[in-house]
Structure formats: C-alpha cells, structure tokens
Amino acid sequence: MTTCLRGILRRLLCLLAVMMLGWPVLWLTFEGQSMAEELRTASAVRGLTVEQAQQPMRVHLRGVVTFFNESLYKRFIQDDTAGIYLQASTNTPPLVPGQVVDVEGVSSPGEYAPIVVPEKVRVVGQMTLPMPIPVTYEQLASGQEDSQFVQITGVVRSVESLQGSEYHLIEIATGGGRLSVYAWVLPVAQAGRLLDSTVRVRGVCSTQFNHRRQLIAIRLMVPRPEDFAIEFPAPEDPFAIAARPIGSLLQFAPQEAFGHPVKVAGTVIYFEPGVRLFLQEGENGLEVQTKQREALQLGDRVEALGFPSKGNYTPIVQDAIFRKISAGQPVQPSPVTVNDALKGNHDCRLIQVTAKLLDRALHGSERYLILQDGDFIFHAYLKQAKGSDAFVGLANGSRLAVTGVCQIDPGEWMAGEAWRAKGFSLDLRSARDVALLESPPWWTLRKVFWMAGALGFAALAAFGWVAVLRQQVAERSQQLEIQIQERQRAERRREIEQERARIARDLHDDIGASLNQIALLSELAQKNFDKPLQAKGHLDQIFNTAGTVVRSLDEIVWTVNPKNDMLDLFIAYLCTYMPDYLRAAGIRCRLDLPVDVPAMPLPAELVHHLYLVVKETLHNVVKHAGATEVWLRLRLAEGTITLTIEDNGRGLQTENTPAPDANGLGNLHRRAGEIGGRCEHRSEPGKGMTVTFVVPLKPPQT
Predict the structure, then answer these.
(1) Which among 387, 406, 266 has a CA at the least distance from the CA of 342?
(2) N or C: where does the chain have the smaller number of CB atoms within 10 Å of the terminal CB?
(3) DSSP letter at 56?
C-alpha cells in the first residue's frame, strides 16, 4: 500500500513539474530515477554493504578484461573507477585480457566483497590494460585491493607447476609477508632459475577467504607474459655460495643481507618427501622445509639451499631445494634423559629416550605414543598409511627405548641455566625406532583385586536379582489368582501352571546352567591359584558368565513383571534391548516407530512370545547374517501389530545350499502361529533378510 501511494505521489509531482517548467524537467526526473535503480560503475558495486548487496540491484558496466580463466574460476574486469569480479555464468563467453566488454546483470554480496552476476556479456572492443597501481604487502593484506590490477616487487621463494593447469604457482616474499602469484609463462627457461630472483609482478589481486568472509591469503593473477619480469636475476649457480654452519643461522651478523637464501650441509636424520627433512651436523640439527620429492636415505650427505626463518626454538630453512652429495652411515642417536631434552640443546637432533608407555592414539595420519618418564609426559609421532598400526603389539606399561628427532616446545622463555622448555616431542622415522625393553607384568595385585571385586559385584547383583525375581513371581502369582477368580477355576489353574512352568524353564535353562558353570570354574580357579595364567583364565570365564547370568535375570524379571504387560512398555523395552544387543556385535540399530504408541494392555503370553521371536531373530542376524545395520519397524492397525526386522547382511544362500539358520526360521514361524499370528520372510543373496511378524493384539481363545 505504501509503495502504491509513493508511486501515485511521484507521478503527480512529475505532472506538476511538466505544467510549471515544461518537458526538460520531466526528462531529468526520469533520468534520475533510472540512475537510482541501476549501478553504472564498479566502484558503486564495491561500495554496497553486505545487507544492501543481498537485495539484487541492476548493474550495467563497461570495462576491460584484466584476467579470465575458467579453470582457476577467475573472471575480472576493470572500468575507470575500480575492478570487479564476475560470477560464473552460462551467459559469459570466453574472454581474454584487453577485451572491452559490456556487462548487464545484478549485484551480489559474494563471499568476500560485492560482485556482479552477469546476465548478458558482449565484447565491444579492444584496449590496453589500465596502468597497475603500485602497492605494498600491507595494502594487499588489508583486503582493499581485492579485484584490482596492481603491481608489486618481491623475491621468489618457490616455483611449482599446478596439476591439471598450464599455470605456475610462484611464492614471493615482499615487505612484511608472502603472497602467491599465478602465471602461465615464466621469464626463464627453467623454473628453478627463478629462485632468489627479484621480480616485478603485475596482476589482479585475488583474495582467498574463509567461510566468515575473512581474508586468509593473497594471490596475484598475471594476465600476460610481460606482466611478470625479472628485475635482479638470481646467481647462475645458486649452490656456488659458501655453506653456512647450521649453528650460525640467525645469529647476530650486522653485515649479512636479509631475505636471500643460505646454503647449509649436513647428514639426513629424517626425510618426509615433499614436506621436510632434518639435517644434523655435529651438535646442531636443522629442519629444512622443501617440496622436493627426490628419494633420500638416512645417512646421506646433503646440501640444502633455502631461506632462513624463525622456528619454534631453533631456526628453520624454508622453501629449500637440495642435492645429494654422497651416501653415508646413519647418525647414531644421543641417549638423553628428559631433563637433558628440556634444556633445548637437542632440538632438531636425533636422540633416544627411555620411558614407560601409557597409551597409543591416532591423530590424523599420525600414530603416536603417550610416554612417561618420572612425572613428565611426552609424545612420539609416526606417520603411517591410513588404517595401519605399527604399535598394535605394544602393551600399556611397557618400558621402551624411543629414537626420534627432538622437537622442543619452548613455552615461556627466560634467561639463565635454570630454564627448561615447556615440553618436547619425538618424530619417529619408522616403527623400528621403538624398541621394547621390558613388558609389563600381567599378574599384578591391582588386577587381582579388580577382578575379585568385579566377581563379588556380579555375585551380589545376581543374588539381588534373584530376590527381585522372587518378588516379581509373587506379584505375578497374585495377579493370576485374581484372574482365576474371574474365570472358570479349571482355566485359571491351567494358566497358573503354564506360567510357573515357563518361569521354571527359563530359570533352569538360562540361569541354572550358568550357575553350575560358575561353580565349576570357581573350583578350578581355587585348585590352580598357584598357576596365575590358568587361574586368570578361569576368573575371566567366571566374570563373563556372571555377566550373562545378570543379563538373563534382567530379561526374565522384565518378562514376568505384570506391570510390563503393556504395548508402550514392551516397545520401549525393545528400543533399549535391541541397540544394546547389536552394539556388542558391532552392528548399528535403527528404529522406525509410530510417534504415539498407545498404553494398552497385552496378554502375558503375547509379550513372552513376541520377545522370544525378536531375540531369536537378532541371534540369527548376529550369528549368520554378517550385517552392519538392522532396522526395527513397527506398524499398528486395528487389532494387529506388525513387527519387521530388516538387516543388510548376506541374505539366504542359493536354493541348492541349505541356509544355516533354517531351523531358526522354523522356530519363528512356529512361535508366531502359537499366538495366532504369522511370520513372513524374504531374502536375496547379498541383499539381506527381512522378517515380518503380523500378530493379533489378542491371541485366539483355546
């Protein structure tokens, strides 16, 4: 309504202006309205806030293409006011730098700065690229130069070819930081000759950002070969410079030029292809970061050429290239104590520490050991293929000799001999760097007490459940007596006898045999108490059997409890019982149940048989199916309940080969028939098994 009123007022004002001043005023009015609804410059689009850009506005720009490459997802144009990014569109033809294009589309907030979503792009001419704006690293890091054609000078730190693209990725250092340059033509025949060259780069600033619209990296996209030029070439043979002692890096040297590579030499003590290597020379070690993947062996003598930089504690060399001088013998580790390692003098050196294994763990692709010596805990890391575990045979409590490259975590620094690092870790070269010195004793007093306590707890729990069972049996008997009074005396006596017989059978089958086994195992453990290993085996069996007794008692107690003869309580029990039962077998359980299950009473016989068919079905799945996932689906209709158990296992075998669970299926059909229902199953080899029980909520009268 408000918009309509504004439109009417605007037309009235225009009509009044025509009447008073004539047609020129009317033309200006409509011209101003058109300009307000359409953005005509790149700077106008860039000036939108995120909130404004979320409401698409019409955009009509004319500018020159500064960079265009679909494989890199980069499309930039620049007019007289600024540069802007074009979103991918099927309406955009292939473009080349220097083309003048007319772009019609709408604005968008983009993922970092406002952009244009083109609807129509036409090439209307050709012109030279605009003059690049000289910038500093700080200006680029501010993000304000995003999408602009700029120029910067820096020293080349590394060069590599992008896989699947004709472009090269060049890392340059300039001012207070580093940035990436993408160029498809290099000014040298060999990429390695660019290292340490001072270059002038002209390109479009392409900002890399996170999902919170925050800048995380800077890239320059070079449009033409002449936009990447060498100002000061690197030496003809970069390895011709004199090697520096490893221990002299980043020491006070007033005459030393900063920002240029140094050459170091040493013996390889660790090598991670394409990532880093460690060199050791005398009492000093050094981490060398390199993208070279040429094979090296421990003990090889190597020269490395790279840029020194500050490390966590000792200097590192970044963006390095290396060459092997000769083969040699591996460096022998220095045996040190934890206190020696924390002094910091062994950082980046090969050491050996003796410690107790607390545990093993996994972090990404690295397996690591948690080790303890005295009160100090440290880690030893080993890179391995996914899924493998070279330390699987090491038991917690073992005494180990661990060899690796020391990595110091300095923590808070203070001068003086009393300073100690916050911590350290070891980088292992292979599983052979871990030697077992002493295995932990198995028969310890703590374990004996633990097992005795667990056994006592299980026994107490069993006695407690027996008492509860007796109470539940009494309640059940009382309920049966009440039912006897409401029915014919003969029928009531028969139901009581059937219920008692079932309880006795369950107690005898599930509990009696297990208790006899516990008694026999207890006698064997007592006779073999002077033989720790045999006694431990008997105690383990007693503990497991006692747990089975407790679970069986819990199931019997639940089924005989008259309070549980309700549909909603039975379904709730299955939702607890099934996941616990399947989780122990490593099988995932999924439930598909109605939102509202009515609280309606169920006959005890129906509850008993439904529970047994579910239990036997799950037993068949765990034993024979080889499944990883089981579904329980429940559907209620008038007077019936449909219960479906579906697994994704191997299914039944071919018709010529009898299924291993054929007897189990027969039992399921028999039990379903005893309560007036039916059992259906379907299966295909390799596609799992589906068992469905359709049972009336009231069993037939006999």
Answers:
(1) 406
(2) N
(3) -
